[in-house]
TrEMBL record:
Residues 149-392 form the Beta-lactamase class A catalytic domain. This is beta-lactamase. InterPro entries: Beta-lactam/transpept-like (IPR012338), Beta-lactam_cat (IPR045155), Beta-lactam_class-A (IPR000871). Its EC number is 3.5.2.6. One of its GO terms (biological process) is beta-lactam antibiotic catabolic process. GO terms for molecular function: beta-lactamase activity. Belongs to the class-A beta-lactamase family. It comes from the Bacteria. Residues 1-18 form the signal peptide. Keywords: Signal.
Length: 451
């Protein structure tokens, strides 16, 4: 039925009142359902069953610290639901985090800096001092959580900081930069030549160059304040070296899942106000120009490590579990379907999983021995079941933790090469990929039922 002129006028007036800066409106019903689904997924993947190389392959002594957030988006990129779940020895069955529908953030968690000695039992679990707080003023928050080091996921913080300077006209993507790592000349490239390898293959040398560049421009001191002004106070890069661009330390570099998800929401873009800070500032996609956001999204789409929340790099391996159904970008593939990324050959034919891909996952992974993370933007491929969401996962599940199926490859006498991931190239416990699959299935189902 066509609208009458009066109805049409009312619709236009309503749209005008809402306007491009309209307050984001999360659906309480959708958010409650998403909380239930995310909590159920975290409980079912078996994080408590992973094995610990540092304890001779015994099962992990405590539930790992897992922080996962999902923001559901409509087709245009507006947030419509959000959920955040914490898992730790404090919350062994998982705990949903209260989220403010206007800020898309939370004040309900006292986040503290990661302390490996505290995790491994060399310090008391519950006696973190006030100086460990990532954000002050939350001493009486009802929840607490020691935030795992984000590993290479923090490189998206550096990329965002660089692109802000490009938007301001301080730099361009073609600005040449010569990287002197202390006294070692690492060569000169245009800015884009450092940004691309930092994201698409997680190149550490390129990251060092850009960290030093930000130091030289006085921007590293500004970066944390810029994130705090967006209401993303737990995104912090502290203590890096202005001489080498390195010194990336657990306990100094911080990210949490909900703040990370909102940063990816901003990069993704969308109409109107994405969220408001507690001070009332409207945060929109215009924090970055459209060319800057598109550049970052292109890098994230080309990111080669389809592992973590996905498992396409180890497609067909009997010890792999299906994850977010995304493809390995073609640039990393040989004619036989095997992938080599950042010098690591994965030696599996990814073509069956690539052909079965349902979504594009614009993401960045991070992994060290003690930490594993993955975060990004998920959007359906043409012709596939629609879904559109942001997901962020941070944990202390680095490659020291692995699954029963690869336990036979562990060599506890070889400090350098004895981890199962070194032999199998399955670096992440597949419980993370399974979480990705369960979340993606839930998001697909939500789209079908319009919950």
């Amino acid at each position: 039925m066509n609208p009458t002129p009066l109805c049409l006028a009312l619709l236009l007036c309503t749209a005008a009142v809402a306007g491009p800066d309209a307050q984001p409106r999360l659906s309480p019903t959708r958010s409650r359902a998403l909380e239930t689904e995310l909590l159920d997924a975290v409980r079912k993947v078996g994080f408590d069953q992973v094995r610990d190389w540092r304890h001779q392959g015994e099962r992990i002594a405590h539930p790992p610290n897992v922080d996962v957030a999902v923001i559901e988006l409509d087709a245009e990129g507006r947030p419509v639901a959000a959920a955040n779940v914490l898992l730790s020895r404090d919350y062994p069955k998982g705990k949903t985090v209260p989220i403010d529908p206007q800020t898309l953030g939370t004040q309900a968690v006292r986040f503290t800096r990661w302390d490996l000695e505290r995790w491994d039992g060399q310090k008391g679990w519950s006696d973190a001092p006030a100086g460990d707080d990532l954000v002050p003023g939350r001493e009486k928050a009802p929840l607490r959580f020691m935030a795992p080091y984000p590993a290479s996921l923090f490189k998206i913080l550096i990329a965002y900081g660089v692109m802000k300077r490009v938007d301001r006209g301080e730099l361009t993507l073609d600005t040449p930069y010569r990287f002197l790592r202390d006294t070692v000349d690492k060569g000169e490239r245009p800015l884009r030549g450092w940004l691309e390898p930092m994201i698409v293959e997680s190149d550490n040398g390129s990251t060092e160059a850009l960290v030093k560049l930000l130091h030289e421009r006085g921007a590293m001191e500004e970066l944390n304040a810029e994130y705090a002004a967006l209401g993303l106070g737990t995104l912090q890069v502290n203590g890096t070296s202005p001489v080498t661009g390195r010194n990336w330390q657990p306990g100094s570099i911080h990210m949490t899942a909900l703040d990370t998800a909102r940063l990816f929401l901003l990069i993704n873009g969308g109409p109107g106000v994405l969220w408001r800070t507690r001070e009332g500032r409207a945060v929109t996609a215009a924090e970055l120009s459209e060319p800057a956001r598109n550049f970052l999204k292109k890098l994230l789409a080309d990111q080669g490590y389809a592992e973590g929340l996905s498992s396409t790099l180890v497609c067909g391996d009997a010890n792999a579990r299906p994850g977010i159904p995304t493809a390995v970008p073609a640039r990393w593939l040989a004619a036989d379907g095997t992938a080599t990324v950042g010098g690591t050959a994965f030696k599996r034919d990814t073509r069956p999983c690539n052909a079965a891909a349902e979504v594009e996952f614009l993401h960045k992974t991070g992994q060290t021995e003690n930490y594993g993370s993955d975060a990004g933007i998920v959007r359906a491929l043409p012709g596939k079941a629609p879904r559109h969401y942001v997901i962020a996962f941070l944990s202390n599940l680095g490659y020291r933790y692995y699954d029963e199926g690869v336990a036979g490859t562990a060599n506890f006498a070889d400090e350098e090469n004895g981890f199962p991931g070194t032999v199998t190239a399955i670096g992440f416990t597949q419980s993370i990929a399974e979480l990705g699959r369960r979340v993606d299935e839930a998001m697909k189902q939500r789209s079908r039922t319009n919950r």
